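BUG: 3D viewer hangs when loading the predicted structure for this chain

Environment: internal workstation, default settings.
Expected: structure renders.
Actual: progress bar stalls at 90%.

Input used:
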Amino acid sequence: MSNIPTYLVSASLILLVIRQIREHPLDARSLATPVFAVGAAAVIFLHTVPGGGSDLALEAAGALAGAAMGAIGGLATRLRLGADGRPLGRAGILAAGMWIGGVGARLAFAIAAGNGAGPAIARFSIAHQITGSAAWVAALVLMALADVLTRLVVIYLRGRRLTAGSAASTAAVRPPPAPDRAPARHGQLSR
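Structure tokens produced before the viewer hung:
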């Protein structure tokens, strides 16, 4: 992972938090933007998903860590219904912190690997049968993808539940519809 693309991608992912902190509608655009951003990072950095040695375990651990951060971030996002009945979302401190923490941890690892920690990471990799840097890159990218996808699924499901609950409570408050037949007049038989 070269430094310039790593810095640019990390900065753009952190800037996405600014959009999430402001209240925004949970529409296709707001849900898809983070997926496209992380997808672009995956295209830039992820060239292979190694499966030798303990690579799959490392990659699964990265994906599980990302999914846990995404679930926490999704549950910590504040949701409410807008005036039009559509859900609105706003990332709170915990949700934003999970996102920034994940991006920051991946960036810190990449910087450390390129600035003196490489030999220590290599020794750790040899001791734990991790086949090389491609496995670390895959684990970090899978962590980011799992974070974003899990967070969005949690927010989407919570938004659907919010709108369904609102629709159900609105239906329960409405008076029953008027009968279709007209009232009987004096001297007429009712149907």
